[in-house]
From TrEMBL:
The protein's name in its UniProt record: Zinc transport system ATP-binding protein
InterPro entries associated with the record: AAA+_ATPase (IPR003593), ABC_transporter-like_ATP-bd (IPR003439), ABC_transporter-like_CS (IPR017871), Metal_Ion_Import_ABC (IPR050153), P-loop_NTPase (IPR027417)
Keywords: ATP-binding, Nucleotide-binding, Transport
An example molecular function term from Gene Ontology annotations: ATP hydrolysis activity
Residues covered by the ABC transporter domain: 5-241
Pfam families (alphabetical): ABC_tran (PF00005)
SUPFAM superfamilies reported in the protein's UniProt record: P-loop containing nucleoside triphosphate hydrolases
Organismal lineage: Bacteria, Bacillati, Bacillota, Clostridia, Peptostreptococcales
Protein family according to the UniProt entry: Belongs to the ABC transporter superfamily.
Gene3D superfamilies: P-loop containing nucleotide triphosphate hydrolases (3.40.50.300)
Length: 248
């Protein structure tokens, strides 16, 4: 089985306070991981460490079998950071401009779109159900729609894995359902490995294959089916915490 991410003995702190100590984690091709943990437990930091955006104090990370600092096949890696929508609100670009901007690395020196590129753009928008919005301004779409556009932006490069940092913040329940249906399509039909940070412990454990719980500098790994969100929340926040189940 292809190892998409392999982290060994990773330790990291921005200063003297260690956020991760001696962490090991392996993510295999085709899995869907949810990363959960209380505020400040270094979930976003962990994604940045995986992607080599920050350097660990000790330990290593491999992406698709290559040490991250030597990794070059970035088109195989999709990353949707947490603040992507805030950044984007006042930005006067259309959906197709945002999505096709990610094709530039494939376009060669002339930087124009061939039929193949146009087809990739169309296909990516169709997968996320945003083909009718190609000419619309990104800032005028809903949070859920913007989220789908940013997913399409990663899809033009046919990624092997997509990392997402809290993609459901500010997204309503209906869009959340659509989002998870899309994740199922990407993961189960297209075989894309998914890794997403979420604070919604109950919902994410129903949708993913694996859960990584962050806290106290450690990462506890569970098969999603064996994960008990209630017990987890109780261990962090005390007995009074209850999970609110949405009615489907
Ligand atoms: N660039 C930075 N420099 C110094 N400290 C930082 C930096 N980025 C984050 N931190 C601190 O590191 C800790 C972990 O932050 P991080 O954003 O990774 O946590 P998180 O689990 O994603 O939190 P949240 O759920 O609130 O988004 C926090 O205490 C944060 O204040």
């Amino acid at each position: 089985m292809t190892e998409v991410v392999k982290i060994e003995k990773m330790t990291f702190g921005y200063d003297d306070t260690m956020l991760l100590t001696d962490v090991d984690l392996t993510i295999n091709q085709g899995q869907f991981w949810g990363i959960v943990g209380p505020n400040g437990s270094a979930k976003s930091t962990f994604l940045k460490l995986i992607l080599g955006l920050i350097k660990p104090n000790a330990g290593s990370c491999q992406l698709l079998g290559t040490p991250v600092h030597e990794f070059k096949q970035w088109s195989k890696i999709g990353y949707i950071p947490q603040n992507v929508r805030e950044f984007n609100m006042g930005f006067p670009a259309t959906v197709e401009e945002i999505v096709s901007a990610n094709l530039i690395s494939q376009m060669g020196i002339l930087k124009w779109m061939t039929e193949t590129h146009k087809n990739k753009l169309k296909e990516a928008l169709e997968i996320v159900g945003m083909q009718d919005y190609a000419k619309r301004q990104i800032g005028k779409l809903s949070g859920g729609q913007q989220q789908r556009v940013f997913i399409a932006r990663t899809l033009v490069n046919s990624p092997q894995v997509i990392f997402m940092d809290e993609p459901l913040v500010g997204v309503d329940f209906e869009s959340q359902e659509k989002f998870y249906a899309l994740m199922e399509k990407l993961n189960q039909k297209m075989g894309i490995t998914l890794v997403m940070v979420s604070h919604d412990v109950g919902v994410i454990s129903e949708r993913t294959s694996h859960i990584a719980c962050m806290g106290n500098g450690k990462i506890y790994v569970h098969d999603s089916q064996a994960f008990r969100p209630e017990e987890y929340l109780e261990s962090i926040y005390g007995e009074k915490t209850k999970i609110v189940h949405h009615n489907h």
